[in-house]
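Fold it.
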Amino acid sequence: MSELTLAEPLRDPPGSAVAPPTAQRWGFWATGAWGLAAAVAFLIAQTVATIVVVSRLGLDPTSPGVVKALGSDAIVVSATTLAGVPAILLVIALAVRLARVPFAEYLALKPVGVKVLLVALASAVAYGLVTGVAGHLAGVKTPPFTLELYRTARESGTVPLILLAVGVGAPLNEEFLFRGFLLRGWANSRLGAVGAIVLTSAIWAAIHIQYDWIFVGEIFGLGLLLGYLRLRTGSLLAPLLIHGLWGIAAVLIVGLFYS
């Protein structure tokens, strides 16, 4: 495990994948500006991918019903998610290059032991069980977005594609940006590690507008866990793994119990 704790700023213990103290880093505002640039690049890539898919499928983009359906269509969601990966990574790569720090070091892309990953995975499973049971007892229903996403994937024969999008594309987009780039810059600012975890989790939850407030709150809690694991392990690999498995599990659970 890393020597980092939540009470510490994001310092660089010897041999870690985090850049040495003498390396240039982006501060709070610059980190936020680069994050906004990455988000804009993602939206542009998403728009282009949507236009291409709509054109290929011969849909009418002026129809209100078609526009509404596109938001949960498996092919559109998969295409826009995967198209966003190079857009976000290129912006982050440019920011890191200008910071004169190796990409893997800035984003803490270092290997961790199997035991560490298993402990991280167990914590995510425990969180999922607690929120799942609590939601069931409270009568919370599966989000319509998730149900519609699986239905369109099954009908179009694109279940493997949507699993690729939620299991690989979404984690690459969101973990590299939130727990990788933004958390790194903000944890080294006056905000500190805890503040950076809370802020990145809040923004990450807020962008999931396809869900109601209950599930947005669940995503916020998951963000806190992922942020903690990123700092505690000193690596982005645990958040990447958990995020990917979480997305795949959500789709498969719908397929098993609600299809």
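The chain has one domain: 28-257.
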